[in-house]
């Protein structure tokens, strides 16, 4: 951008409001020997016409010139180097020795036409002319003044005119024109003041390179910056032109402003014999082979980079290093914009059917949303009120200029006192106002990056408040982001009053980087039958970085036809609603324009996202906005991805969004530098594989790759240390063996051996001989450790202690056949929920009594054949196995058992409820038919995830995602499900709904109906956690900034915390230890906190090196608290006391929710719109699932076929005792 001070081509001062600086002007260089501050009209409108032109020009040689066929180059640049400016000063002071004596330019704009030819029609001239012209124009300026220099080197003008554009076969040549023009004047008396002609005849043109007004042949200087006229040099007497070899100067005559130059004109100086030719600034004689980068202007007006020899016969050398071009920076433009190069840079312009400033473009007529935060410090009457980062949401209907704004969480009395402050929402009315013909709304000028400063003074009290609103660009799905700060004093408003604001009009004034307005508004405060009319005065200023070549209207009028303000005390929400249109200021409309079009007064019948297109008079048509298709009355979204209309490159994924689409790189790829293509992501080296790690030897420690080229060291079990230095742990010091055994410490382990005379394994020793355990019995007594060190399988043994031929995993649901040694027989493993394999020999017709039957018979005999109601008797199925559900007589206590009859910890229920127990064999193949929108899940472990209006089901095969079996579990039309969790006792899923502002639940059994348990007192319920032991549910509300709890049926509801919370989101519970954890992604101070489940002992666990902790999970097996951070992109874990913090993965995309299962984490991701699997030990991404229906995924949880072990202490504490009301 070139900033030229006041003067040509607009006389007088042109300052930005309140800035005190000259307005930026951006010259454009034309092929036809002219420079202008406006876009050029068609050639036929100016190239053959005499002065004045219709648009402002500086014309060193205005003619029909041509650079095609490699005939000549056109160079231009801005320069502030000292050498160049010093030489320019020499020429200027030669022409103005007195008035320019103190002139010190800060910048110069230089344009050079080198070896350009006259345009020739091919049919008339088969051979191009060899006559070529070279000339130059320089604009030198500071903050106060501007001078223009024309330079014509000796022999530089070989032709003096060109053929007219529409000469047909007439042989005619029009002389070129040299001079200045401001454009046409509306005042005929001032025509002579609006142009200055230096030469327009062949005689005058032929003298340009021989004569001068500075004493240097071919150098002409003019002052154009401080007066209303162009002032030629040479009118103040002679002076040295440049520091070296000053020429002799004859006495000059009187300057002429409107007459052409000829050999007898008094303004021209005849140089003496010793006068020299123009000295070229930046050119060193003898160094003419210098190569330099230059801007090259083609005949069609476009620009490109070119390398060309240094032009050796004129002033300046050229460098393109400082100029930004479309070729370099087109990625800054919106995907819905095109890029245009200009003399001083480039600009972006939105394509048809889109509007904006080119950097950000939105579809015309579509619905838009805006999210933001509001902070402030207000004095209301005698009260001082502070609030931080409360939520602001706006909903825009672009087709008719309606803007709805809601601000929630502003404390009283400030919220009520802000009712008259309609300009807070009025900004959006101006941004997205309905545009009348010839006008532009605010977004068309500022785009989505600007700052509004607003000052409001209330009367009669004189209270003053300042509002600053900063737009921070467009986010995903074209959501505009805004931060608002309010500070000052506002009048107090009592309760039970309403505020009425009458329609108003407001005048806006525009410059290239600022918009200003001011005005007086009246509002009526009504209390019952009493009304009081009050007023305030406002002044506002919007600053932005716009395209310097844009020409916004000088003034526009915003007309607000409807204005509405309301405070909802029940929901604590302040609301503004406006309907606005914008048009040219009064007097700028066409006087003959008939009545107002329905498109402009909002009476049209077009349905969003269609836009109203004005016709003749009051006629109009409805047209679907870009990205939509239909007849205008009904518009449907175009799926550019499905129809192949997108421009997504290779290795990218096309994601359809309303009215448009976006491209995202596939996994393992990243955006290239041009912002369009995707290139492979170079995988970071694995220090664990190449040995570049500091860990202790492999027999003492293990190396864990973090996925970012770094590694973590951990000592192996049996060793202690930091992973780099590991020492053996003496387990014998803790006496782990039986008292009748001897402990032997070994490196990394130990062993126990019974003393002589005792038998056993060292952990259990019995005096004398005891029967030896079979391998199956030994494995049952000392099962393998839980994952990840073992698979957690407890084998099933028969009565003789041998392995049963059929083995089934108690948690995963897999079944397989084993041999006599208990080893799995390859190819026999079956998936959860399918029919188990047939193993071993067929059972005899008369089988021996099973363990369940023998135990049952033994107890019945012990009870005398008729047990009492409080005595337990095992229940056996027809095949002799224990039934999965066992109950204790008629006491009402029930629990689930394994196949061996052993109680599954954590499943015992209280009287009145029955635990859901999974059978140890395959489920029945025939099930009741569920309701149409519910698909019951199969047995085994699976994931549930929230995706807008549905809850999805994603089964696991071990830890791998069974993508082909994924399906919709529950459809919830009109909902937006965010938080989700599972009650393993009653097999119920619980979820939060931010659209319906409710919390609901549904069973996993076929035919279960959703049930709402919390339906009031919620604004934005997000995170949710279920405590299956205490039968409680906990949730966060980011609208109310609260954490609450209730019983699983919604009763005994109570607020746990409502202070020191800004944006609470994720929440997790440890039922066994009775601890609660939650995240607060307050952008100013994000943190993770904890307390007991009854709200005691609240404290901050993590508050450093976190950004947006969206997801949180507590792993009941490893006892680790882990979170996914969308700000730092980290997945981290810590112990429940905040110690042992470590990074698992440091290159997440945009995680939202996370859950832990076995040796994996599973999180939902908003960049990929899917479920991502991460290995706990290595941090590696192992799998991903992308639903066919692409939209954001929210909460995620894991559903086990059993409840994690543990019980509360003491047992069965009522929730009311834990959480007193």
Automatic annotation (TrEMBL):
Domain EGF-like: 595-636, 637-679, 684-727, 728-764
Subcellular location: Secreted, Extracellular space, Extracellular matrix, Basement membrane
GO CC, any one term: plasma membrane
Disordered: annotated segments: 228-273, 290-310, 828-850
Highest taxon of the lineage: Eukaryota
GO molecular function terms attached to this record: calcium ion binding; Wnt receptor activity; Wnt-protein binding
Any GO BP annotation: canonical Wnt signaling pathway
Alphabetical list of CDD domains matching this protein: EGF_CA, nidG2, TY
Entry annotated with the keyword RNA-binding: no
Compositionally biased spans, kind Low complexity: 828-838
Per-repeat ranges for LDL-receptor class B: 987-1030, 1031-1073, 1074-1118
Domain NIDO residues, every copy: 60-227
Record domain Thyroglobulin type-1: where: 773-839, 849-917
InterPro entries for the chain: 6-blade_b-propeller_TolB-like, Cueball_EGF_LRP_Nidogen, EGF, EGF-like_Ca-bd_dom, EGF-type_Asp/Asn_hydroxyl_site, EGF_Ca-bd_CS, G2_nidogen/fibulin_G2F, GFP
Domain Nidogen G2 beta-barrel: 366-592
Biased composition range(s): Polar residues: 253-269
Protein name: Nidogen 2
Species in which this protein is naturally found: Cyanoderma ruficeps
């Amino acid at each position: 951008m070139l900033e030229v001070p006041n003067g040509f081509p607009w006389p007088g001062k042109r300052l930005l409001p309140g800035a005190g600086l000259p307005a930026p002007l951006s010259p454009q260089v034309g092929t036809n020997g002219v420079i202008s501050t406006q876009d050029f009209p068609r050639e036929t409108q100016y190239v053959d016409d005499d002065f004045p032109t219709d648009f402002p020009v500086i014309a060193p040689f205005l003619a029909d010139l041509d650079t095609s066929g490699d005939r000549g180059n056109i160079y231009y640049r801005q320069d502030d180097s000292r050498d160049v400016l010093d030489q320019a000063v020499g020429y200027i002071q030669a022409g103005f020795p007195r008035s320019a004596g103190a002139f010190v330019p800060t910048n110069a704009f230089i344009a050079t036409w080198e070896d350009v030819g006259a345009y020739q029609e091919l049919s008339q001239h088969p051979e191009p002319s060899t006559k070529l012209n070279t000339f130059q124009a320089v604009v030198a300026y500071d903050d106060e003044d501007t001078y223009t220099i024309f330079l014509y080197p000796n022999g530089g003008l070989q032709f003096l005119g060109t053929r007219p554009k529409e000469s047909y076969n007439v042989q005619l040549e029009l002389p070129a024109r040299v001079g200045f023009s401001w454009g046409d004047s509306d005042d005929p008396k001032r025509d002579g003041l609006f142009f200055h002609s230096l030469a327009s005849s062949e005689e005058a043109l032929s003298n340009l390179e021989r004569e001068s007004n500075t004493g240097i042949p071919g150098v002409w200087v003019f002052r154009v910056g401080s007066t209303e006229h162009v002032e030629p040099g040479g009118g103040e007497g002679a002076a040295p032109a440049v520091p070296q070899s000053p020429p002799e100067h004859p006495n000059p005559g009187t300057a002429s402003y409107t007459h052409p130059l000829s050999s007898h004109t008094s303004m021209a100086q005849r140089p003496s014999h010793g006068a020299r030719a123009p000295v070229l600034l930046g050119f060193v004689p003898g160094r003419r082979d210098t190569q330099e980068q230059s801007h090259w202007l083609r005949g069609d007006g476009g620009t490109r980079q070119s390398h060309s020899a240094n032009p050796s016969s004129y002033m300046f050398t050229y460098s393109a290093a400082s100029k930004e071009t479309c070729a370099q920076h087109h990625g800054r433009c919106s995907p819905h914009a095109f890029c245009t190069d200009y003399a001083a840079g480039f600009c972006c312009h939105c394509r048809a059917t889109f509007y904006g400033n080119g950097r950000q473009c939105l579809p015309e007529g579509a619905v838009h949303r805006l999210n933001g935060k509001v902070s402030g410090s207000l004095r209301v009457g005698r009260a001082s009120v502070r609030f931080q980062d409360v939520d602001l949401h706006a909903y825009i209907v672009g087709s008719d200029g309606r803007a709805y704004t809601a601000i929630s969480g502003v404390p009283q009395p400030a919220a009520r006192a802000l009712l008259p402050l309609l300009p807070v929402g009025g900004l959006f009315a101006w941004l997205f106002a309905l545009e009348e013909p010839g006008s532009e709304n605010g977004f068309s000028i500022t785009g989505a990056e600007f700052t509004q400063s607003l000052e409001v003074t209330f009367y009669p009290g004189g209270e003053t408040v300042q509002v600053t609103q900063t737009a921070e660009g467009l986010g995903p799905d074209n959501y505009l982001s805004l931060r608002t700060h309010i500070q000052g004093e506002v009048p107090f408003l009592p309760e039970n009053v309403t505020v009425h604001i009458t329609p108003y009009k407001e005048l806006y004034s525009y410059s290239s980087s600022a918009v200003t307005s001011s005005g007086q508004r009246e509002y009526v405060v009504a209390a019952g039958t009493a009304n009081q009319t009050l007023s305030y005065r406002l002044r506002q200023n919007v600053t932005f970085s716009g395209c310097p070549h844009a020409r916004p209207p000088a003034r526009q009028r915003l007309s607000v036809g409807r204005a509405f303000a309301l405070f909802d005390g029940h929901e604590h929400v302040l609301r503004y609603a406006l309907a606005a249109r914008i048009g040219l200021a009064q007097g700028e409309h066409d006087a003959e324009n008939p009545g107002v079009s329905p498109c402009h007064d909002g009476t049209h019948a077009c349905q969003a996202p269609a836009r109203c297109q004005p016709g003749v008079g009051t006629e109009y048509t409805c047209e679907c906005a870009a990205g939509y298709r239909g007849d205008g009355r009904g518009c449907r979204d175009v799926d550019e991805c499905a129809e192949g209309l997108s421009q997504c490159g290779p290795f990218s994924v096309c994601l359809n969004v309303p009215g448009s689409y976006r491209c995202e790189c596939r996994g393992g790829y990243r955006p290239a530098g041009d912002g369009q293509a995707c290139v492979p992501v170079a995988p970071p080296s694995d220090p664990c594989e190449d040995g570049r790690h500091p860990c202790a030897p492999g027999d003492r420690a293990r190396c864990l790759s973090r996925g970012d080229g770094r590694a973590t060291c951990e000592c192996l079990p049996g060793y202690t240390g930091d992973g780099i230095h590991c020492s053996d742990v003496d387990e014998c010091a803790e006496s782990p063996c039986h008292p009748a055994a001897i402990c032997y410490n070994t490196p990394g382990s130990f062993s126990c051996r019974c003393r002589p005379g005792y038998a056993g394994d060292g952990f259990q020793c019995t005096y004398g001989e005891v029967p030896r355990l079979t391998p199956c019995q030994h494995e049952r007594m000392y099962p393998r450790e839980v994952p990840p060190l073992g698979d957690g399988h407890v084998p099933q043994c028969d009565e003789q202690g041998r392995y049963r031929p059929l083995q089934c995993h108690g948690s995963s649901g897999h079944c397989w056949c084993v041999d006599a040694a208990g080893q799995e027989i390859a190819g026999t493993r079956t998936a959860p929920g399918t029919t188990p394999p047939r193993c071993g020999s067929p059972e005899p017709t008369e089988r021996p009594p099973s363990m369940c039957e023998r135990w049952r018979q033994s107890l019945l005999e012990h009870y005398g054949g008729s047990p009492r109601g409080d005595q337990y008797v095992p229940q056996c199925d027809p095949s002799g196995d224990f039934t999965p559900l066992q109950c204790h007589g008629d006491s009402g206590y029930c629990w689930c058992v394994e196949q061996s009859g052993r109680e599954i910890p954590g499943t015992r229920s209280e009287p009145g409820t029955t635990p859901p127990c999974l059978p140890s064999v395959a489920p029945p193949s025939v099930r009741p038919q569920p309701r149409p929108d519910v698909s019951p899940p199969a047995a085994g472990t699976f994931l549930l995830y929230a995706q807008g209006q549905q809850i999805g089901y994603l089964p696991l095969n071990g830890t791998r995602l069974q993508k082909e079996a994924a399906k919709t579990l529950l459809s919830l039309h009109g909902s937006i499900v965010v938080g989700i969790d599972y009650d393993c006792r009653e097999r119920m899923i619980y979820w939060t709904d931010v659209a319906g502002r409710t919390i609901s639940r549904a069973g996993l059994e076929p035919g279960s109906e959703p049930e709402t348990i919390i339906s009031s007192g919620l604004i934005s319920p997000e995170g949710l956690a279920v405590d299956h032991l205490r039968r409680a549910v906990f949730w966060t509300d980011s609208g109310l900034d609260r954490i609450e709890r209730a019983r699983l049926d919604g009763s005994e509801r109570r607020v746990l915390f409502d202070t020191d919370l800004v944006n609470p989101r994720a929440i997790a519970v440890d039922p066994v230890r009775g601890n609660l954890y939650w995240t607060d992604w307050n952008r100013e101070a994000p943190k993770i906190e904890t307390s007991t489940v009854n709200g005691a002992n609240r404290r901050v666990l993590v508050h450093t090196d976190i950004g947006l902790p969206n997801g949180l999970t507590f792993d009941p097996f490893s006892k680790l608290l882990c979170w996914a951070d969308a700000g730092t992109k980290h997945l981290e874990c810590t112990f429940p006391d905040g110690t042992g913090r470590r990074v698992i993965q440091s290159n997440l995309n945009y995680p939202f929710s996370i859950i832990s299962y076995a040796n994996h984490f599973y999180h939902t991701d908003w960049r990929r719109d899917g479920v991502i699997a991460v290995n706990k030990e290595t941090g590696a991404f192992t799998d991903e699932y992308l639903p066919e229906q692409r939209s954001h995924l929210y909460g995620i949880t894991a559903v086990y076929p059993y409840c994690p072990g543990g019980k509360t202490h003491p047992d069965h504490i009522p929730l009311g005792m834990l959480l007193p009301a």
